[in-house]
Amino acid sequence: MIQLGEYNTLSILRETDPGLYLGDSEGNEVLLPHKYKPESFEIGDELQVFLYLDNEERPIATTLEPFVTLHNFGYLHCSDVNEYGAFMDWGLEKQLFVPFKEQARPMKVGSWYIVYLYLDEVTNRLVGSSKTNRFVDNTEVTVAKFDTVDVLVTHLTEKGANVIVNGKHKGLIYIDDIFEDIRSGDRLTAYVKKVREDNKIDVVLQPPGYRSIEPNANFILDELKAAGGFLALHDKTDPDTIKNELGMSKKSFKKAIGTLYKDKQIEIKDDGIELIDDFDTGGEEN
């Protein structure tokens, strides 16, 4: 079945003046305009194309890649607003319509918004909505502590960064767990720190607990090598300085250097940390 808003793998049926007609196994057909046809092809070849409605509300195929697909979220730029609603640039020739009733707040030309793409069952048109809470649900959480997840940052508050987890759930990265510059629209790999009793999900951008020690230790080793074997950072250094220099919390830093010290890879001095000679050149023995 041909599905609007998604990628479809269709067979080339015939070539005409407007372009190539593609079809599925059920006898449905759609036009791929000439400007999108491959340089070489044969009748019967399969093509992966994205389907949407053209300016005359007819299904049309394209090889362009949209910024969002059906039942997913995208970070889109508002390029126009008229008396009916807003129009978003989503990477295709025809812009995506977001009616006023689907706007969490009035959209403005030039601004960016998190938009969910769905198919209006009444009009059979692809429509965008910035009322993202309608399309996420934490009633039945499908992630657990320590899971690696994909997150989309929706907006920042004094509490932290609100995110959509795996395109399904609402989550939060607390401000104390943010050690890098992030902004609305960022897609990041994150880790589930906790699923609360009320099904709220706390996530972090570094593996939580003991799982973060090894990556942080390796990162500090790389920084030490790049700095010539010494960093003027230690367990008495101000947390903000550590965050600015290494992008991690002081707690994570202390865990990491503790691991490196136990492994006899660094020395901890009054004015900083230093690579032990054996590790300064990769630990090569004579």
Strand order of the largest sheet: 3-2-1-4-5
Average of per-residue pLDDT values:
92
Question: Uncertain spans, ≥5 residues at pLDDT below 50?
Answer: 279-286
What overall form do the CA principal axes indicate? elongated
Task: Write up this protein.
There is one protein chain. This protein is mainly beta and 286 residues long. The chain has four domains: 7-62, OB fold (Dihydrolipoamide Acetyltransferase, E2P) (Beta Barrel), CATH 2.40.50; 73-133, OB fold (Dihydrolipoamide Acetyltransferase, E2P) (Beta Barrel), CATH 2.40.50; 148-205, Beta Barrel (OB fold (Dihydrolipoamide Acetyltransferase, E2P)); 210-280, Winged helix-like DNA-binding domain superfamily/Winged helix DNA-binding domain (Arc Repressor Mutant, subunit A, Orthogonal Bundle), CATH 1.10.10. The chain contains four helices and 18 strands. It has a five-stranded antiparallel sheet with strand order 3-2-1-4-5, with no helix packed on it. It has a five-stranded antiparallel sheet with strand order 8-7-6-9-10, with no helix packed on it. Helix 1 crosses helix 3 (250-262).
List keywords for this structure.
single chain, 286 residues, mainly beta, OB fold (Dihydrolipoamide Acetyltransferase, E2P), 4 domains, five-stranded antiparallel β-sheet, 18 strands, 14% helix, elongated, disordered C terminus
